[in-house]
Amino acid sequence: MTNLEDALVAVDAGADAVGFVFYEKSPRCVSVEAAREIVEKLPEGVEKIGVFVNDRPERVSRVADEAGLTAVQFHGDEYQRPSEYVVNRTAFFCLPVTEIVREWRQGNVFVTFSGFPNLAGVLLDSGTREERGGTGKTFAWGEAYSFVSTVGKLHPVVVAGGLTPENVGWAVGFLKPWGVDVASGVEARPGKKDPEKVRAFVRAVRDADGLRGSGG
After folding, report:
1. How far apart are CA 153 and CA 139, in angstroms?
2. Segments making up each domain of the chain, as ranges
3. Cα–Cα distance for residue pair 95/32, rounded to 1 Å
4. Where is pLDDT greater, at 122 or 107?
5. Which of 82, 149, 163, 202 would staple 13 via disulfide (CB 3.0–4.6 Å)?
6. What is the pTM of this model?
7. DSSP secondary-structure letter at 79?
8. DSSP secondary structure letter of residue 30
């Protein structure tokens, strides 16, 4: 979120969480002051999550305090050394799923955060180590299905990457994640949401989740 109007639209549509990017290279980057002004006007029950990329843990904690965040999301290489990123909030670690799945299939990696004390979940995104999230591209859900299922038995899994109102229902039904994350798929332009797309996205998630809950 970069502005209060978009954040309120998302909350009104039924989003459980809103995110704020503190990565300077992102077109969605916001200042701590701007994020705090938005957070102060949001309902208490909505999660306010800060997105960071290879930042210093002490800065992450400071920004979380100053902006009033309830959780943080590490979107860089932090997953490779999670013990160095213990901060004063629960945390999501983002994995570049296409690269990780390739290494996992070769037996070169097995991702676990069992020793991390404040884990909220694992986010699987289509970004790479060179190009972080916000690509607007999906990853190969079929190829990643076994990996998603395996990680999901250990940690809550959030699926991201190229999700839109048109495909998110299928993603929820097929991958059965704990949650989904969207940015470009509901934007009019980078950093500005399209209200109708936001509402359609949340509606599609709720509909798919209802079918999943009923065994459909």
Report:
1. 20
2. 4-208
3. 25
4. 122
5. 202
6. 0.90
7. G
8. -
